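Study this:
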Amino acid sequence: MVVITLQRKKCIGCNYCVELAPDQFQMSKRDGKTVLLHGQDKKGFFTLKSNDELIFEASDNAAKACPVKIITVKQV
C-alpha cells in the first residue's frame, strides 16, 4: 500500500508535483495550489491510501522535488 500526504496550506504553487506525478496531483484553478486527487482532508492534511504500488515512484519523485517539503510518500 502507498500512502501519500499533502499539507496543502503551505503549497507555493510551483507545479513540480503535477509535472512529476500528474495522476496524483493537479493544480487548483481557484487558488493556484496543488490538489491531491482523491485525497481525504483531515485538518489541512490530505491523505491518499492506494493499493496501486505503481504510483510510488512518481509520487516519491514529486515529494523529493517539492521545494517546501509538504508531500510525504510511504510504502506500508
Remarks:
- The helical segments are 16-20, 56-65.
